[in-house]
Amino acid sequence: MKKIILIILIAFTFNSCGSWLSPNVHVKNDINITIDGENLDGVQGEWVITSEDKKENGREIIVITIEKNKID
Fold this sequence. Notes:
Number of strands: 2
Shape: rod-shaped
Distance between the termini: 82 Å
Number of helices: 1
Radius of gyration: 26 Å
Helix content: 25-40%
């Protein structure tokens, strides 16, 4: 009898918590890509891609930098 009551209480606890818990998520995708101010003519070559993670105002921001290697 104790096991049945315990199972009912556990099931009720998980059911009741799930209805009022919901995450507050805001996703905004702003992507601006500039490749050395060039059009598609300058795309071929060797590129260096770096990323930087930072937090501003409680938000996680990922900055991706794409630079073209200069040929000597």
